[in-house]
Amino acid sequence: LKVSAVGMGCWAIGGPFWHDGEPVGWGQVDDDESIRAIHKALELGVNFFDTADVYGCGHSERILGKALAGQRDTVVIATKFSHVFDEQTRVWTHDDGSPEYIRRACEASLKRLNTDVIDLYQFHAGSYDAALAPAVRDALEELAEAGKIRYYGWSTDHPDRARIFAEGPHCTAVQQRFNIFEGNAETLAVCEQHNLASINRGPLAMGLLTGKFSRDSSLPADDVRHDWNFKEGKVAGRLAQLEALREVLTRDGRTLAQAAIGWLWARSKNTIPIPGFKTVKQVEENAGAMRCGPLSEEQMKEIEQILGR
To answer: What Å distances lie between residue 227 and 18, 62, 218, 219, CA to CA?
Structure first.
């Protein structure tokens, strides 16, 4: 499957949902704006959309399916499974990696997405017992052979788990957290070794790399980032690092967000960043990174020097 150099991550457009009493969504969302944003992404050449059944407890899949009606043959849809949830209460309760559950979850996602096949089906439980992973992989192979999915992958930061899935004939991707501040180089190396796509979640460090936050920022109680401390600690430290990087990142006319995406492309040819969005404006900025391309070798070296790596 050929995908655009940047995809769109659909976590935020699912709206609020909870796990163990804590918010794991990105706050309130306007469904009409979400659909307009997806249409804008298509217009700008983005054909890859990554969601999960648990985002908004089914809501993100439903919105994506509605927005892509009539466009199915021109797009690549990725979704995820394993987080068991109640669609009415919007609560994610537990995980299930059993073959029986995988088959049920796949059928449910197909219905919500209004499609007869999922292009990339990804295991969402990143730290799942590695000893049980081959059974998950085998169940996904069966789904591929049955024509329910085209390919599969694992959303995990653990290289040992990535290697287990890489052995499967229909495994084409590993989704991992990766951005200027963080990422597992060994997991990325597994992708390069096995010629898998490294789909990068959190390419903008959950918004930090956009430059929109300051020491005075705060976030609503239903946002997964509600407890971020912008005045001290890790978040505050990264804000300071971003200020030190600002000139290097934006000297060629890019925005900070576009530079963060360009950094990933320069880091490895296997990377596919999937920045999240809630608005048309955010989609326009993120898709605009494709006009800029990867950061230069000089910029990459300067960034490493500034960050002391």
So the answer is: 15, 29, 8, 8
CA angle 276, 308, 224 (to 5 degrees): 25
Tokens standing for residue 65: 């399916």
DSSP-assigned letter for residue 140: H
Average pLDDT for 191-201: 98
> 99-113 and 59-67 helices cross at what angle (nearest 10)?
40
Pairing of strands 118-123, 83-86: unpaired
**pLDDT for the residue numbered 4:** 98
Beginning with the edge strand found earlier in the chain, give each strand of the sheet holding 18-19 in spatial order. 22-23, 18-19, 91-95, 83-86
**What's the chain's average pLDDT?**
98
**pLDDT in the model for residue 119:** 98
Pairing of the two strands 118-123 and 149-155 = parallel
Among the listed residues 55, 54, 49, the one whose alpha carbon sits nearest the alpha carbon of residue 9: 49
